[in-house]
Write a structure and sequence with these properties.
mainly alpha; AtHST-like; UbiA_sf; transit peptide; plastid; Tetracycline Repressor, domain 2; about 280 residues
Length: about 280
């Protein structure tokens, strides 16, 4: 959907999205599982389009400074077109969630809808993105864990994945505002980057990720499985080294360089999906 220029978070960890950890063995990959996976991902996709589109509708003036190429900010699409798009996708998300008949999926979509609306909409007591803490909590909250059509059993891999992805979600919530500091400052959005400065928030984010990788390495070292120990330690050590090397080379005075590093963080996020199934 070019009209909304969707963000990398589109299918990252929205409620209802099935995860690799839901599969414990090859026998779990059945037609029922694949159907549930498709239903959950599509419903989450539709809801994410609503959330991202609504945010852009209420950030048109800010985006003229921070992201002038976005369709609404550039005038390529009118606000009326944006309203129509987000309304249709919200309705389709709820419609699919209702048709599936999964109460956890439907309520996860509803909670995402409420938080996404409160985050962006400019009404009294809302527009929660003005508060750095509340905004970060909203973003973290919608990255919930939900294993489709099976009870959550808190084994070691699940606890690791939940904790690790929580760290990543915090980093993403903090880092996403670093390139947008100019417009946020002008329009009174008190993000952590505005309050603490780009450089400090940048290195806080890098430090949190390196801490998460260190915990992952320790987790691997305590594994009783040799192949899991080797893969977990080696994989996270390599990613930690790459992260540190790239972070040191970022020009913090360049918006393009900071944005590029933000996209790199998303690559690390997706790379973790390859390592999580190896944790034992």
């Amino acid at each position: 959907m070019d009209a909304l220029r969707l963000r990398p978070s589109l299918l990252s960890a929205r409620p209802g999205a099935a995860r690799p950890r839901a599969v414990q063995s090859l026998s779990d990959i059945s037609p029922l599982f694949l159907t549930g996976l498709l239903e959950a991902v599509v419903a989450a996709l539709f809801m994410n389009i609503y959330i991202v589109g609504l945010n852009q509708l209420f950030d048109i003036e800010i985006d003229k400074v921070n992201k002038p190429t976005l369709p609404l900010a550039s005038g390529e699409y009118t606000p009326a077109t944006g309203v129509a798009i987000v309304s249709v996708f919200a309705a389709m998300s709820f419609g699919l969630g209702w048709a599936v008949g999964s109460q956890p999926l439907f309520w996860a979509l509803f909670i995402s809808f409420v938080l996404g609306t409160a985050y962006s909409i400019n009404l009294p007591y809302l527009r929660w993105k003005r508060s750095a803490v509340v905004a970060a909590l909203c973003i973290l909250a919608v990255r919930a864990t939900f294993v489709f059509r099976r009870p959550a059993v808190f084994r070691r891999p699940l606890m690791f994945a939940t904790g690790f992805m929580t760290f990543f979600s915090v980093v993403i919530a903090l880092f996403k505002d670093i390139p947008d500091i100019e417009g946020d400052r002008i329009f009174g959005i008190r993000s952590f980057s505005v309050r603490l400065g780009q450089k400090k928030v940048f290195w806080i984010c890098v430090g949190l990720l390196e801490m998460a990788y260190s915990v992952a390495i320790l987790m691997g070292a305590t594994s009783t499985s040799l192949w899991s120990k080797t893969a977990t330690i080696a994989g996270h050590s390599i990613l930690a080294a790459i992260l540190w090397s790239c972070a040191r080379s970022v020009d913090l005075t360049s918006k393009a360089a900071i944005t590029s590093f933000y996209m790199f963080i998303w690559k690390l996020f997706y790379a973790e999906y390859l390592l999580i199934p190896l944790v034992r």
